[in-house]
Backbone:
């Protein structure tokens, strides 16, 4: 394969020759691509070699020199642990000297008068590559379970392949096991390990048929850097079949993301893309392979932009909290009972960005608490302000992400927030999505329980979107169920959805908690929910989420209704 590119930092070459003319010629040939240093005889050469032992990539060594000849230099270099692996190319005019030099451990020789420049350059590059490759391989680190490389070694090697063979089309392939933590939790770590080592075995078999390398990163994350394959579906099938035969009837599904070779894309970027594609792959069969494409690339750039802009957005107050009312519909007319605080991002260039775009992203990157803290503080201050100005008690719910509960000071911070704003706990409710519960991490449940003990009410958001079983639900720390929007959407013309809504209301009755129906947009939906016994409704039918000033009009209206009643 052709060497088309020098690595970022130029390699250091020592040219040793007693004749100035020879030093000049070699210098002229090499100085464009290498960091060249010089010595005029053997004694000087040895000193330079010692001094640069860690950084020297190669020595170009003349044989016949005064003081100390090239053979002696070579002998001493090879006898010294520090310098013995530095490759040496011998420069010689005599045929006899070649053999002796090679026997002493020289890597190659170049005859005088000098060959074509291209030949010299190619030889130097090839010897450096070989010697680095040998050093790299001798330091290879393997993952014990799968016998694949470790992450660090894998990237070092991939970077090398990329650098020296930048025209060769190596693709990046990321493979994960769907819900691996659940597989481990349900069937035990030994079972998990059997699956992982079966994967390792099949990946190694695959790599024995094509050129490439592979690693296991943490847990179930596999990476393969291999020559372009015409059909990655075939690779996925083969891995899946192997896993199927190792899993003894337990359903374990793989997913795969591929980033195909692209000009100038280094392995780190390629694997970022492959992982992003893999994250979009679903466990169901037809979607379990995703190839990184233009659309993903645009999304990726958009996400990157959002991540970059987060801090500026906080500093420049681009985030705004909107409020959406919740009405108690069992009263006539319905009564404003509380509100939900919802974040909005007014981006100076991208316009209004919906939380559906950035909340999941920031959650994945562990940055959501920056946004959430902002919302909590604003909402708490807002509730206090409304209390003071209108004498009106309007509890506001804020959203909590699962990752917020990783902060050990969370309870303390929220308690302090309530105290600092002279609120009571009922004024600030906390919404947590059902999916956070179903992961069933004891740490998470512990935090939610402490929040409740402190006095906060917890609403389970998007209830019904996940898989909480009744049995599980009755053990969950929850005060309110917020029914997922999808149930409401079609209740007017779908009898099944109507039955599901009734079922959810029954569950809530059994758990003795009220239900909030979200996403109510029409009079018809409202009526069905009211007749079915649903207490509280949130949705466009009453109002979209509003900026605080506009929301105040709803408060004022409510105060008037109250006044009229008296
Ligand atoms: P969510 O907490 O379930 O909030 C309800 C979402 O439904 C809001 O979307 C709201 O605007 C929308 N919605 C309300 N009524 C209707 C309706 O009648 N029809 C339709 N089609 N939609 C309706 P939004 O504001 O875009 O927020 C989306 C999600 O982003 C929220 O879902 C919540 O999970 C998350 N989110 C919003 N603000 C925050 C926040 O401050 N922190 C965190 N961690 N997540 C937030
Ligand atoms: Mg919510
Ligand atoms: Mg919701």
Residues:
């Amino acid at each position: 394969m052709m060497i088309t590119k020098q690595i970022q930092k130029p390699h250091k070459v020592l040219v040793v020759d007693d004749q100035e003319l020879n030093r000049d010629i070699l210098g002229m040939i090499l100085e464009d691509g290498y960091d060249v240093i010089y010595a005029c005889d053997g004694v000087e050469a040895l000193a330079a070699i010692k001094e640069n032992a860690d950084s020297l990539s190669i020595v170009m060594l003349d044989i016949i020199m005064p003081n100390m000849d090239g053979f002696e230099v070579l002998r001493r270099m090879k006898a010294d642990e520090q310098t013995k692996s530095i490759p040496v190319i011998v420069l010689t005019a005599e045929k006899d000297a070649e053999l002796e030099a090679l026997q002493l451990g020289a890597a190659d020789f170049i005859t005088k008068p000098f060959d074509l420049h291209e030949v010299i350059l190619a030889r130097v590059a090839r010897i450096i590559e070989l010697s680095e490759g040998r050093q790299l391989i001798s330091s290879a680190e393997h993952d014990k379970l799968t016998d694949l490389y470790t992450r660090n070694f894998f990237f070092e090697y991939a970077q090398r392949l990329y650098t020296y063979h930048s025209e060769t089309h190596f693709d990046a392939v990321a493979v994960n096991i769907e819900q691996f933590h659940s597989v481990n939790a349900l069937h035990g770590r030994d079972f998990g390990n059997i699956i992982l080592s079966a994967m390792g075995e099949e990946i190694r078999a695959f790599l024995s048929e094509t050129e490439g390398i592979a690693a296991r990163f943490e847990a179930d994350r596999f990476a393969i850097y291999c020559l372009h394959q015409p059909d990655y579906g075939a690779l996925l099938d083969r891995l899946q079949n192997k896993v199927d035969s190792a899993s003894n009837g337990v359903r374990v599904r793989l997913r795969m993301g591929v980033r195909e070779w692209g000009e100038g894309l280094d392995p780190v970027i390629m694997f970022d893309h492959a992982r992003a594609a893999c994250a979009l792959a679903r466990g169901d069969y037809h979607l379990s392979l995703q190839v990184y494409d233009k659309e993903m690339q645009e999304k990726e750039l958009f996400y990157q932009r959002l991540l970059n802009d987060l801090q500026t957005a906080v500093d420049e107050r681009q985030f705004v909290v909107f409020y959406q009312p919740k009405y108690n519909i069992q009263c006539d007319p319905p009564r404003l009972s509380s509100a939900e605080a919802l974040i909005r991002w007014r981006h100076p260039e991208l316009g209004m960005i919906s939380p559906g775009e950035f909340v999941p992203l920031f959650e994945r990157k562990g940055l959501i608490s920056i946004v959430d803290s902002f919302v909590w503080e604003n909402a708490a201050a807002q509730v206090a302000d409304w209390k003071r100005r209108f004498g009106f008690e309007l509890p506001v719910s804020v959203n909590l992400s699962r990752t917020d509960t990783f902060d050990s000071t969370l309870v303390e911070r929220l308690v302090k927030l309530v105290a600092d704003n002279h609120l009571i706990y009922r004024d600030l409710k906390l919404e947590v999505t059902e999916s956070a519960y179903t992961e069933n991490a004891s740490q998470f449940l512990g935090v939610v329980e402490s929040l409740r003990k402190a006095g906060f009410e917890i609403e389970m958001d998007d209830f019904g979107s996940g898989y909480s079983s009744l049995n599980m639900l009755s053990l969950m720390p929850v005060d309110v169920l917020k029914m997922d929007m999808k149930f409401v959407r079609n209740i007017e013309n779908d009898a099944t959805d109507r039955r599901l809504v009734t079922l959810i209301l029954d569950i809530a009755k059994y758990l003795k908690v009220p239900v909030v129906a979200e996403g109510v947009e029409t009079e018809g939906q409202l009526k069905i929910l009211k007749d079915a016994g649903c207490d509280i409704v949130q949705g466009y039918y009453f109002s979209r989420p509003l900026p605080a000033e506009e929301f105040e009009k709803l408060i004022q209206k409510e105060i008037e209704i109250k006044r009229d009643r008296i």
